[in-house]
Amino acid sequence: MKCAEKVNKGLHNVAVKAAIPHTLPVMAGYLFLGASYGILMSTRGFSFIYPMITSTFVFAGSLEFALAGILIGAFNPIEALLLSLMVNARHIFYGISMLDKYRGLGKKKLYLIYALTDETFSVNYSAEIPEGVDRGLFYFYTSLFDHLYWVVGATVGGIFGSLLPVGIRGFDFAMTAMFAVILLEQILSSRKNIPSVIIGVSLSLFALVIFGSDGFIIPSMLLMLLALAVFRRPIEHAEKGEGDV
Q: What is the pLDDT of residues 140-151, one digit of tens each?
């Protein structure tokens, strides 16, 4: 028994040492963005307990920023549900991509599915696992560390935000700025995304004009999904053509 315990402990230690370096870039981003989320929740009148709980159990960055507004708005569970589905719909494709990598991992797979964020997907999908490191434990610890970084950032931000002067103006713009920066990074990093970007921006502006600033998000997302589904082949052809230039 003791021998088996030592072997098991050794496997975990090796997996932790292998996983930590892969998560350090994620830590830098998650601590900062998580703190921004915690401060935003504080400016909305919430105790640090709220960002700590939501970051632990919701663990969906973009949705958590949106949640700051949903919680103080009119009670509309249908709109909240649809918004959650639209914002996180991309995880369907992440899940499909990870089917082979997460196959046969037993109970660990449940947590791996829950903790699959954009950044964790990037790490676990592309990482070359060193020889002698248990595959399931490596995926588990990269996911766990990323999760902890976000929780710590959100909690610290919530505590720090409660110490700031009441009525800070302009901090609500943090979410808008974050999405703008992410969009610009995606555009600059790859010209192949230009057709999809044009569709997304055009349909968002169209929905904004038709439905107004309070109700354009869900219609715009539905229009984008429909457009990308209908014109998938031409878009893929155009993107491949641009990528060969």
A: 999 999 999 999
